[in-house]
Each structure stands twice: as structure tokens, then as C-alpha cells.
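Request: When convenient, would you put together a sequence paired with its C-alpha cells?
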Amino acid sequence: MFTSGGPGVRELAVQALSSVERGYDLLAPKFDRTPFRTPDRMLDAVEEALARREGSFGAGLDVCCGTGAGIGMLRRLCRGRVTGVDLSAGMLAQARRAHGDEAYGDGGGAAGRVDFVRADARALPAALADTYDLAVSFGAFGHFLPAERPALFAGVRSALREGGLFAFPIGAPIPLRSPVWWAVAGFDAAMRVRNAVWRPPFVMYYRTFPPSGVRADLEAAGFTVATTPLEPFGRLPSGAPRWRLVLARRDDAAPAAPVTAAAAAERPVSGRAGRV
């Protein structure tokens, strides 16, 4: 599963017994040589869908950016500032090495700039409020418990300008008869046991982000929600897309539900540009 130079079994075990933030700090130097990095195929499909539907954007935000797999895509889609946000200092260090705090553009107009911010995705800094036209996230949602989604979505909404778009891929539900369902169910069960007997917890689950619950929480946070198929991934025998792109648009006419302080402060979360 791992390329040459990737982490060994001992390194992965140490990560799994650490907190989410510390675990990704340790894994960061070798993260891009694991299967957990978001595949270029997914990034390309999302970029194509956004460009086709929306054209270009002003400023872009990568929520839980990890080592910065999505930054190149945002640089191509966005004319202005591109920001990556993550709680793991180690992952951000790798992202900076790859993309720098650098200006970009064709020289024909105002250049954009890439920068990185260390922050909890559920409580983004006030300095980022009402700044971005597009926010994306890849492979990080397994690190958020269902009760944390309202704070996460409220934070992203606060960073977007009026009419701004929050876009992310989501897979079709896995049928119960599929071996994959049993594999991910086993993984989630093992993680629950690990977190019951070991501290600090390492929150990573595969079945805590169902499309219906996600839509409801986005709408409660003040988004209008649509989806579009990611056709490069094909369709199921039923005809349903294997992957969809969620398009959640900040709707200032829809009041956002309040987020309780308890939900927002339940635990620190670190994102990653991880497996999708």
C-alpha cells in the first residue's frame, strides 16, 4: 500500500496511539507517500466540475488542507488569495515547502497569494471572516464526530462571502452486502474500542458522514445545497453516481442555527488532505 520511503508499521502504530494533531505532526514528512493523500484523479474531477459550473472564483480556502494537495487546484480556479487551514503544524510545514507563502498569476493583473493558517476548522480566526468565494475540503471529515458538524459548517460559512460556495466530494452509501461495508465497519469498531481504552483519542471514522445528515446540517448552518455527479468515477448498477460534488452556497436569507459553546469546544480537531 505504501510507496518507497513511506512510513513503517512502527511509525503508523505510534501515530495511531497519539492525538489527531500529534499523529499528523509525526506522519507529515512521509504523508504524501501513503495512500491517504487525496488522489489527483479526485482533485482533477472536482476542479473540472467547478470550472464547468462556476468558471473562476476570487479567493479560495482549503479547509483541513493537510500537506496541500488541494492548493494547486485552488490556484488554478481562483484569481485572488488562496489559504490553507489546518491544525497540524507538521502538515502545514510540508504544505509551505510545496507551495510557499508565494504570489502567483500571469502578470497581467493582480497576483494571488498562497498563505497558510494554523487553526481549528470549527473555530476559524475572525481575520478570515467574509473573505473567500470558494472553500473546499478533501478527506478530512472522518476526523469530526457528527455532533461537531454544525460548528465545522458554521465556521466555513463565516469565512465565505455572501453567495460563496463550499464544495467537497461525497461517496455513495456503501451497500450492506459489499465487503467494503464490512471492512469500514470493522475499522470504525476498532477505533471506538481504541478510543474507549486509550487517551488521547484519535478520531477517525468512515461512517459518520452520511449524505442525508450532512445536507441537513449544512442547511441548518445557512447553506443552500445542491449536488452534481463526478462522472469520471462512473455510476453504480442502479444508475446513481459513485461520487457527487456537494455544492453548498452561503445563503444570507436563511438564518444560521446557533452553535452551542459545548459543541464548538468538545475537542481540538486536525484535518488532513487525506484518503477519500
Remarks:
- The longest strand covers residues 160-171.
- Residues 38-264 form a domain with the Rossmann fold fold (CATH 3.40.50.150).
- Confidence is low (pLDDT under 50) at residues 106-110, 261-276.
- The radius of gyration is 18 Å.
